[in-house]
Specification:
about 70 residues, mainly beta, about 45% strand
């Protein structure tokens, strides 16, 4: 995954019923101790956001639907 990718929330993640819509990956944040990267994503229908309008998502929580160049 990289900045500029379009993503959608993975349907395999828990029992999440919220429809996030489409997201744009805008920033790499960090890797956790288990090797799962965290990214800042701008969603069309976010559940929660930081002050800059992005949501922190694990890479395993999203699926890439269109890769940036």
């Amino acid at each position: 995954m990289k900045v500029g990718d379009l993503v959608q929330h993975s349907s395999t993640v828990g029992e999440c019923q919220h429809k996030f819509g489409v997201g744009l990956v805008v920033k790499f944040l960090f890797d956790d101790d288990f090797g799962d990267s965290r990214w800042a994503v701008l969603w069309t229908n976010p559940r929660w956001v930081l002050k800059d309008g992005t949501a922190v998502m694990y890479e395993s929580e999203v699926e890439i639907i269109n890769e940036s160049r």
